[in-house]
Design a protein that fits this description.
With 200 residues, the chain is mainly alpha-helical. The chain contains 8 helices and 2 strands; from the N terminus they run H-H-E-H-H-H-E-H-H-H.
């Protein structure tokens, strides 16, 4: 990633409404990415990052409402995988707390044939959604949607290509809405705001 991009001095929580939702359908996601100047290929590439990190139960395939709203999800979900998710991470008894309960993005690596390290990153995501083992509801239809399914299979079979394109797409993403002049700040420590710019 190129260095030198300024950070904002504050966060507007209202901007979160512009982020992709875990229960968004593929058509809406394509439009949302296009509104930001990103292609379908860019979208699929960036979604590959869902092989690391965590989601919350409320955005996952265990939520029946999500499955009803996202075209293509219910038809390809591995039901044994979904049952495992419900028992291990998101029991119905705790449904009122689903918005707080974390779930790993790759919730089950057994039998996947995936290796470890950078070669498995990204590839693990694509292979899992092909098998109906996606964690986030909106990810699953990518494996069957007409304009994304071939891309999913391409990157599932070529980790080097995906990693190369992921780097290029992240650079493209990093050039959006760049702050210039007196806007924002150059942080002394990247994880915290400079003291002079912190808001009470």
């Amino acid at each position: 990633m190129p260095a030198g991009r300024r950070d904002s001095g504050f966060v507007d929580g209202n901007l979160a409404v512009n982020l992709p939702g875990g229960n968004s359908n593929t058509k809406d996601l394509i439009r949302l990415y296009a509104d930001r100047g990103l292609t379908v290929d860019d979208m699929v590439i960036l979604e590959g990052a869902h092989s690391v990190g965590e989601a919350k139960c409320v955005t996952t395939i265990v939520d029946d409402l999500n499955l009803a709203n996202v075209t293509g999800s219910a038809e390809i979900i591995d039901n044994n995988f979904r049952e495992m998710m419900l028992k291990k991470y998101c029991p119905k008894a705790n449904e009122s707390n689903w918005s707080e309960i974390p779930v790993p993005m790759i919730a089950d690596k057994s039998g996947s044939g995936l290796g470890s390290g950078s070669a498995a990153w990204g590839v693990s995501f694509f292979n899992n959604i092909i098998k109906g083992k996606g964690v986030i509801t909106s990810d699953v239809p990518f494996a069957v949607y007409p304009s994304t399914k071939d891309l999913v299979r391409q990157y599932a079979n070529d980790s080097a290509l995906w990693m190369k394109k992921f780097g290029e797409t992240m650079v493209k993403l990093g050039k959006m809405d760049v702050l210039t002049g007196e806007q924002g700040e150059i942080r002394r420590h990247c994880s915290v705001q400079n003291a002079a710019n912190m808001h009470a």
